[in-house]
Specification:
Length: 502
Amino acid sequence: MDDEGKIRQSLNETLIGYLDSWGLREFHDEASYYQWQQASLSQQDIRDLQLLVEQRQGGEDALADIRFYDLLAQPSLLPILYSQRFDYFLQLGLLLLPRLSSAEHVLDFGCGVGILTLLYAQHNPTIQFTGIDRSVRSIEVARCEAEKRKISNVKFEVIPPSGFAISGFYDCILSTQALFQSEQSAGLPSKNWRTFERTTDPALQEHLEVRTGLHMRLDALLKVLSPRGRLLCFEKTWNLGRRILFQRALSTRGLFPLCEPVSCAYHELGEMKSDGPVYEVSRVPLTDPLLWDEAPYPCDGETLYRCVGTRAKHMAVALGMSRSQSEVRGQHATLGRWTFRLGVWEHVLAWGWCETASGFHGVVLGSVQEQHLLLQLVKNISLLSDLEFEECVQDCWGTVLDVRQNDSMPGYENHFPSAQVIYQALPSKMIQREATFADDEGKEMHIEIGTTMILTYFYWANTFDQRQLVLMDEKGAPTLCQYYQESLDEAHRSSQEILPAP
Ligand SMILES: C[S@@+](CC[C@H](N)C(=O)[O-])C[C@H]1O[C@@H](n2cnc3c(N)ncnc32)[C@H](O)[C@@H]1O
């Protein structure tokens, strides 16, 4: 391990010890966590919590939010409920701690019970920290913990729920999941269902900033940020519409990125979460300013889709998988002879096809841009032991021995923004039926069914970056037609069809 790795590992261990000192425990699955929660909390606590969670679900209700965080701060509940965020604190601590060392006065906006604020303060005794929050109970706990831990370079203050009278002057302001809450808001819509691009409409931007409370919070923070100060924030901006709204809110206030936004993923009870990147911005631009990225973030492997059994066999015929670009063969003790072929369909889809003498058929399909992932898959396949071969096939398609399947299973399916790239590149596309809808809020949605060569496709897209592309061979086409009709009926129930001009 290099020096950097050793420092990180040591910090990791220190942070785990620190979270332990709060009574927090790490859980890697929901079942064991909820078992512990049920055993540790009274039925009344659980009922109170459920009620507050429900009350908060409506959106921007400050009082419901305060009641929720006040409850979480109760000493009997705090370690149990905040344990869900164990890895969140760990990953954020690892990422933010090294970025604070150059600061003198740091404000932590929406500090909650101060778990992160006290961590930063303990590790940076020469920096003065101020934590502010509108939850009185949370601030009481934060003050009490500071005293108990003898951390004197920090103070905590309650700020009123309405109006933002923040005092002081800071060269670094932190906001982690406090500035841009309003989780119901999908942010800025795209120009239309065909694109991820947004209009530059200052009135819409302002309207959404006001509706989400972003404008008041951001303006209040900027009043107390020194001219050369930095704002470090980590908010729920994974969704592209929210990311662009947030970035434009920063940009219109003259804030520039000081470095590329850094992704921060963490697990919550075993489920991976990527809320958005950590932004580090300032009013002083770099000599060579960085541009804001408004494109969807691609995820490695997001275009890959697998199917097995008869659907795989039909897709193999439809995509001409007998004509492979490369082929690897081998012999497995129980599965018999196996073949793995790779190829590309019409410059659009890369495919991999595996069959064994025992009767297993598996297809993996992805965009040509991700063909390298399929190449990696087969690169060493002929060198694998029987067990490793089984594991490799299992990782890709699930169990080799159980190839039962539902005939309505798609031949290919993609729910990511990359579905649009594949949809646009489909060869000899012929639309059979299509419809576009708008709801009361102007949100636009489009569905379409058609053919591409001998395949049938279904495409669904809206102005909040949701996409769905499904491809079927001839035998699966009726299922797709039925799916189109169901989607059409559903759309008619919730929105208004935009009829083409005569
Ligand atoms: C999700 S918690 C995050 C706490 C902490 N920053 C963290 O990363 O663990 C959100 C916190 O922001 C506080 N908060 C939300 N809106 C606020 C506002 N307008 N003024 C002050 N605090 C606020 C809430 O009371 C809550 O403690």
